[in-house]
Amino acid sequence: MNVKTVLILLGLALATIFALVCVLLTRGRAPSTCQHLPPEQEATEDGQSLVFADLTPEEMVQVVRYLQGKLGVQLVDASRAKPSDNCIASVDLQVPAKAEVLRFLDGGGARPPREALAVLYFGNQPDPNVTEYVVGPLPTPAYHRDVTVQKYGGKVPYHRRPVTGKEHVDINALIQRELKKAPLFLTACCESDGTNLAILSTAPRGFKSGDRSTWFVLFHNTAGTGYYLSPVGLEVLVEHRDLQVSHWRLHKVFYNGRYFASTGDLEQEFVAGTLEVVRLKQTQTDAVLGSMRPRSPPGSPGPLHFEPQGPRYRVRGNCITFQGWSIAFGVNPNSGPRLFDIRYHGERIVYELSLQEALALYGSNCPGGMSTRYLDGSFGIGRFAYELVRGLDCPYTATYVDRHYMAESDTPKTNQNSLCIFEHDSALPLRRHFSDSQSFYYGGLRKNTLIIRTISTLINYDYIWDFMFHGSGAVEVCVHATGYISTSFLHGQGTGYGNRVGPHTLGTMHLHHIHYKVDLDVDGQLNSLELQDMEYELIKDPWSLQNTIERPHLRRERLEREDEAAFPLNAPMPRYLSFASPNPNKWGHPRSYRIQIISFAGKHLPTSSSMERSVSWGRYQLAVTRRREEEPTSTSIYNQNDPWTPTVAFADFINNETITNEDLVAWISVGFLHVPHAEDVPNTVTVGNSVGFFLRPYNYFDEDPSMDSPDSVYFSSEQDAGACGANPLACLPPTAACAPRLPPFHFGGFLNL
């Protein structure tokens, strides 16, 4: 080896060593870029939000033990209780009165006692009824009081109680016994003996108060697929009002456009050859309309949401803080998500923001479809919010929270990971400007939003409930609908009520109407309702009097009474409608928050309908009322099974009280008409099926509060935009090495079914 070769090799070795040192030095600096930073500290009082916290499983257990020991009656576990038994139907938080809470939060008063609301079904007594007790104080109950008469003006009749799982089991057993009376028909129509048919309940249950008579629709049930798309044309009407299960009976049968007195009569007509039968075959799983099994192999992964230095929000118990926002969150097992004490930079904007009800009203030429008006709160919007799938229902790195409930059982249930919290980059500027005149610069801010989400599966439909908090001080509420459509068997003039989506399947038209309660406290509790809209005024041109000009003019109005503030559904509404404080901002305008509704609702049920009062909240896209403690919700779980004499009728809330400088509540309805079509198979997609509303600051601040965001970007033509010191966006490339350590995928959502 000559000297030249040695020098070359030595030079290569030195270059290699230098490169390795550079790599090691770079890697050594990486942790300072990628280290998780603690979320910003918020000026909130530790533990105050717990006044709104959902009950813990331990508290629920204590309430059950207390009631079992103090009521002096035998209580059967609701999971196996017959209608003729007494049982504890549910236990939930009793939210304290607002005045008590505000004295505690704002006035240094005592913390309100922590209490539970227990709903009991008393079937084993001379006067069966539903009774509600407030039980407290928690965690060690020492008292209970009956609040039923105080809340509803009297005892709740027993027939209004929601149908329990045990009642459905007993009804299904009755239907199976009746199906055995038509074996030849079932073999011919459905290739079935009845045991492999799915049975779907409708509601309400009759035509007048006291009825408990329900149509059930039968479907081919293929494992792993949505049976909702495979009706067999058979529907049965079951009378189940009697407290003795043995007295229940099948009252009517419907098949392919005809009605029969019993399954025996149906069988006789089939045997006699006088019944037109549509012969359906059980199809393989992959060929079923409702199959969601992938048809293509997995592709390359899509974009991944992650925080290079960890979450910028903080979750402590039931309180979330994020860039000036603080929110107390929870879930009611019946009505679903509820938020309290929403503040921005320490100022309360909303005292309560809660879902109230979700109505699904169907049309069809089959009895089950045409009579269906689901009030989902009666089934359990919050109770049926199951575990979220990491990386699909929410970002993989979102924060997932367990929710606990007690319903139809003496044992608390947990829906683990059923609520998620995450910061979302919408890939859209919140604001921006590129200046190309006078001076050259760019300024902007990414639209990053904090999202609180839960998803309810209510039989066939899945509702995605989003609550979003923006850097501009705006709150956005949105519901996205997906899941399976509900269908009827296609016969006769069925396409007058929807579209054909399968060989014998009619996608039935229906509407989704959703109701929310928004208790805004804009710069204090006392607010007024202010409207603004535009008019054109024709004036002579001031500088050319022979000409005229149409000049837009701002019309302002302050409403005085509740009747004026009830805006009918689908009627024109003022474009600017705000809750206004008596206090002005820097520029002399009332500090206000604007309500902006995004909805394309169907038509409300005619007021002539015997059940319309039970959903009378749907008359209005917006109604503003004076807040009253005795009007906490716009509906009741008891309205579903007795809509003809509703336990709570929202229309009664509107009685022309004054709404000037009062504590006001906005009741907001959003929704859409859905005419199912071929692309709804197998599932309805969320695209175009989202509605909601905004709460937007309107002269509440003196300027856009997002100017204080640490995420703001500004650089001029005189700066080096590629320098990290001048432009935060130039600091992003090093964070590309900060790939998150993702936790292993796990899903336990099937455990509680």
Chain-wise SSE layout:
Elements: H1 3-34, H2 57-70, E1 86-94, H3 98-106, E2 115-122, E3 129-136, E4 143-146, H4 148-152, E5 156-157, H5 165-179, H6 183-190, E6 197-201, E7 213-220, E8 231-239, E9 249-255, E10 258-260, H7 263-272, E11 314-316, E12 319-322, E13 325-332, E14 336-344, E15 347-362, H8 367-370, E16 373-375, H9 376-379, E17 399-407, E18 413-437, E19 439-458, E20 461-470, E21 475-483, E22 487-489, E23 498-502, E24 505-508, E25 510-520, E26 526-541, E27 544-559, E28 566-568, E29 576-584, E30 590-598, E31 620-626, E32 662-674, E33 690-698, E34 713-716, H10 732-735
Antiparallel strand pairs: 1-2, 1-17, 2-3, 3-4, 3-5, 6-7, 7-8, 8-9, 9-10, 11-12, 12-13, 13-14, 14-15, 15-16, 15-25, 17-18, 18-19, 19-20, 19-34, 20-21, 21-33, 22-24, 23-24, 25-32, 26-27, 26-29, 26-32, 28-31, 29-30, 30-33, 31-32
Name its key features:
Beta-galactosidase, Chain A, domain 5; TPQ; 10 helices; 753 residues; metal-binding; 3 domains; mainly beta; single chain; 26-stranded antiparallel sheet; globular; Nuclear Transport Factor 2, Chain: A; 5-stranded antiparallel sheet
Describe the structure.
There is one protein chain. The chain has 753 residues and is mostly beta strands. It folds into 3 domains: 48-156, Nuclear Transport Factor 2, Chain: A, CATH 3.10.450.40; 165-272, Nuclear Transport Factor 2, Chain: A; 313-698, Copper amine oxidase, catalytic domain (Beta-galactosidase, Chain A, domain 5), CATH 2.70.98.20. It has 10 helices and 34 strands. The strands form 3 sheets. It has a 26-stranded antiparallel beta sheet that branches. A 5-stranded antiparallel beta sheet has the order 6-7-8-9-10. Strands 22-24-23 form a 3-stranded antiparallel beta sheet, with no helix packed on it. Strand 9 and strand 10 form a beta hairpin. The longest helix is centred in the first third of the chain and has 32 residues, at 3-34. It is globular. The termini are far apart. Residues 14-32 have low confidence and may be disordered. One of its GO terms (cellular component) is plasma membrane. This is Amine oxidase. Residues 161-258 form the Copper amine oxidase N3-terminal domain. Its EC number is 1.4.3.-.
